[in-house]
Amino acid sequence: MGKPTSIKTSEEVRDRLRTLAAERGTTITELLEELAARELTAAEREQRAVAAARELGVEYTDEVQQAGQDAWARIRAHQGGTAA
Fold first, then answer.
1. Cβ-count burial of 32 within 10 angstroms (0-12 exposed, 13-18 middle, 19+ buried)?
2. 21-33 pLDDT, tens per residue?
3. What angle do CA 4, 34, 80 make, to 5 degrees?
4. What pTM was estimated for this model as a whole?
5. Which UniProt keywords apply (predicted)?
6. How far apart, in Å, are the Cα atoms of 53 and each of 36, 68, 76?
7. Cα distances (Å, whole numbers) of residue 81 to 39, 67, 78
8. Alpha helices in the chain (DSSP H)
């Protein structure tokens, strides 16, 4: 593990993180580490999309990228109950 650092946040967020960590039997630090490891960066998502297209035999063009982004936006809208 690297050198410890501090993150400034509101008391409400800190309290929520403390509760979430306690419910999972972990610490705020471990909870944040898990979140950071689980979430992909934009570059990592792009790499995975290119690899998935390649596996499907599809050339990953700007149009394919946009179609994929549009599809995920529609899925998220439906999951949130605000269908586009």
1. middle
2. 999 999 999 999 9
3. 130
4. 0.58
5. Plasmid
6. 26, 10, 21
7. 23, 21, 5
8. 11-24, 28-38, 42-55, 62-79
Per-domain residue ranges for the chain? 42-79
In contact, 68 and 49? CB cutoff 8 Å: yes
Residue 20, both tokens: 């979430």
- Contact indicator for 33, 24 with CB cutoff of 8 Å: no
Residue type present at position 54: R
Which residue reads 């050339």 in tokens? 59
What confidence tens digit (pLDDT) does each residue in 45-76 have?
899 999 999 999 999 999 999 998 899 899 98
